[in-house]
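Reopening closed ticket. The problem is back. First fold of the pair:
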Amino acid sequence: MGPNGRGTAQVPADGEPENYILGKSHSKDISEQVGDLWELALNGSAWVQREKEVCGRNDIHLLAETWNGEDLFRARGVGYIYATSRAKEWFERNASEWVTFQEAFTK
C-alpha cells in the first residue's frame, strides 16, 4: 500500500491497470500463496441500443432478440456483464459477498 492507504505510489508507465500485475516479474512465493486463478471469459454475443448519444445506464437497452440464450454474457459496445435470473440466483446462493446486480433494461 502507498502512503495514502489506497494503492502503490508507482503507476505503470502506460497507465494500464493490468500492468500493475503483468508488468512485474513472476513471484513463485506469491503464486503458491494465491493458488490457481481463473478468468471468466464471456462472449460479446448480444447488442445494445443507446437512447441518447451521451447516456447513462438507464438509457442503454439490451436488444433481447440478439441474446443467444447464454446465462452470462456481454453485449457489444458496453462493459456490462449480463446475467439471466438463473445465473443471478446461482451467484446469490454461492458468491453473494462478491457480486451485486442491477436490473438491465431490454427492448
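Second fold of the pair, where the issue appears:
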Amino acid sequence: MTVTKQPSDDRLDEPQMVLAWRAEALARAGYPAEEAFLLAERDDVDLHQAIYLLESGCPVGTAVRILT
C-alpha cells in the first residue's frame, strides 16, 4: 500500500508562492511593501522591468505609474 502525503492546509499553493516570491523580489529591489505587493499581484507587470527601473534611478512613485 502506498501512502501519498497531502500538503498541510497551512502551506501556500503555487500561485500564492509565486505572488510571495515576486513581492519579495520587488521589496529587495527597493519598493515599499505596499507597492511591491501591488505590482507583484499584477500579471501584466514585468518583474525584471520593475527592478530595472529602480536600479536605473527611477523614483518608486514614477516606476509604479509607468508599470501600471
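Update: turned out to be a display glitch only; the data is intact. The CA atoms of residues 30 and 51 lie 8 Å apart. The chain is about 60% helix and 0% strand. Please close again.
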